[in-house]
User: What shape does this take?
Amino acid sequence: MSKKLIGIDLGGTTAKFAILTESGDIQQKWSIPTNIEDEGSHIVPDIIASIKHRLGLYGMTPSDFVGIGMGTPGTVDKENGTVIGAYNLNWKTLQEIRKPIEEAFGIPFDLDNDANVAALGERWKGAGNNSPDVTLITLGTGVGGGIIAEGHLLHGAAGAAGEIGHITVDPTGFDCTCGKRGCLETITSATGIVRLAREMSEEFSGESELKNMIDDGQMVTSKDVFDLAKTEDDFALLVVDKVCFYLGLACGNIGNMLNPSDIVIGGGVSAAGEFLIEKVQHYFEEFTFPQVTNSTSIKLAELGNAAGVIGAASLALKFSENNK
Assistant: This one.
C-alpha cells in the first residue's frame, strides 16, 4: 500500500487536518476548534489527540505515513521545530512543536509559516501548476504572501521573506501596524479597502450608492465596494481602480525582481474574481518591462481553504523522496 501524508493548517479559530496521497490528493479531512486558553498550551496536545483519534477511526497506524507537515501563524524556526509570536494563538513564548508531535507518532514532522504553506499548496496543486517560480499574495484582513523561486521556498535571514503586505507602495499613505507607512496591506487588505473608501468619499461629490452608504454611517465591506463597482457605481469604480493600481504596482515590482511564471492572488478579497485580476493586470503591464510582462501571469488562487493543508502535506514530501 502506498504511503500517506498528513497536512495540518493551524489557525486562530480552527485547526484543519487532511490525509493525502503522495501525489497531493485529499482522502480524508476534518477540523477541530483551536483552544487558545492557558497561553495556547492545549493546542499541540489537541492536535496529537485528534490525529490519534482519526487514525483509530480509519484503521491506520503511524507506519502508513511518511511525514506530517503543518502551517502555523507566527515566526517559525524550522531547524528547531519551534514557533514564537503567534499572538492569535496566545503563543507569546517559544513553543516546542516538532518534538512532542514526533515523540507521539514516530513520524517525521516539518512546519512553516501559514502564508508560506499556502503558497506551497497553490504551487503544487493549484494555480501554480507546479512551476518552480510562483509567488502567492493573500488579500484578507491583512496581506500575506509566500515566494517560491527556482523550486525553493524563500525564508530570508530572519524568516521574513514573502512579507508582501509590507512592500511600501505609498510613502505618504496610511500608517501600518508594522510601524511603517503606506504598506500594501494598508490599501489592499479587506480593512484597507474600506478605510480607503471612507477617505476618498470625503472628496467625491457625484451620485453613488457606495458614497451614500458611507455618508449614512452604514457598515461597508470590501465585498460591497467590489460588488458596487461591478454595477458601474462611479465612486466604487474609483476606489477599486486605486486598489488595483497599488496592487498592480506591487505585482510589477515582484515581477521585475523575481520574474515568477505566476503571481497568484488569493484570500477573501480575491472573491472579486476576474474583475479584480483584469484591473491588476492592466497596471502590472504598465509597471513591468517586456520580458516580464510576457512571461509572468497574474492568476486567481484555485484551492481556497484547502491550500493550507495541501501545502503543509507538501512539506512532508521530502521525507517520502528521501526514502525512495
Summary: The longest helix spans residues 234-258. The chain is about 40% helix and 20% strand. The chain has a mean pLDDT of 94. The chain has two domains: 4-120+305-322, 131-301.
